[in-house]
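hiii, so i know i said id send this last week but things got crazy w the move. better late than never?? heres the sequnce for the chain we talked about at the cafe, plus the structure i predicted for it. fair warning i was half asleep when i ran it
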Amino acid sequence: MARGGRDRLLGLALGLLLALALAPGALRAKPTVRKERVVRPDSELGERPAEDNQSFQYDHEAFLGKEDSKTFDQLTSEESKERLGKIVDRIDNDGDGFVTTEELKTWIKRVQRRYIYDNVAKVWKDYDRDKDDKISWEEYKQATYGYYLGNPEEFQDPLDHNTFKKMLPRDERRFKAADLDGDQIATREEFTAFLHPEEFEHMKEIVVLETLEDIDKNGDGFLDQDEYIADMFSHEENGPEPDWVVSEREQFNEFRDLNKDGKLDKDEIRHWILPQDYDHAQAEARHLVYESDKNKDEKLTKEEILDNWNMFVGSQATNYGEDLTKNHDEL
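okay and structure toks below
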């Protein structure tokens, strides 16, 4: 997922904490390989490999999550079917005994986003200093910038100093965008939107704005082709451009610059980094329904799913199976 760029990386909470330990020169490093900025929700769910038609690995990862689909052959087929049955009950949101494509798509999206909530859970205690299950802006600011604010003299490198000075108001702006009720206190959902803005519709404009700020070196509010390429590739003096850079220049002219004015505005940047052209979760849900729907009524019974259990879960054992007895708000 595209979170590249020096400032954008530091803008994430964990990146900011790690930045305190980085050598001064690390903040100045420029990319020498291609950088991907395109943000795809359900980021763990990519294109279906052509060779996966028989192994069902893609289906397993989509349905269970990549991490939970790595451990195989620890369950018997009977145990797998039993746990799959419990999953089916949870997917059937309206309890009508059928799993629709929409319900399956919603489930897949939740599974693919689970890593986000796991990440938030891991760092939550580092920011929730008063243990009230909320994180105020002041708590976050002190946890992330407290050392810098209290010891500015230790940041003698002008670039390091300016980077932290720049990131503080930028993080505050993002925090306010995530704080839907405007009370300067983030709930878990609001803090999740703060740390992972690309996954929330109301945060998309922040993603676009931060991307523009990262790449727009001349400060004119637009991205020209050179700025677009410079974000992906550091050109060595007198060295030839790789073929992919030449291709990206063509992409810029033909597909990125929609109005053909030689630069990208915010709408064109959004079209670039937040594509809406393909929903992998929708496609996978349709695939699973099509392959399992014996009576072709475009919805699945539990029996139809269990009859095709190998496509959904195979014989793989997952931690997720153990989690079925737990109450996961994030799923």
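btw The chain has 17 helices and six strands. thought thatd interest u
miss u guys!!
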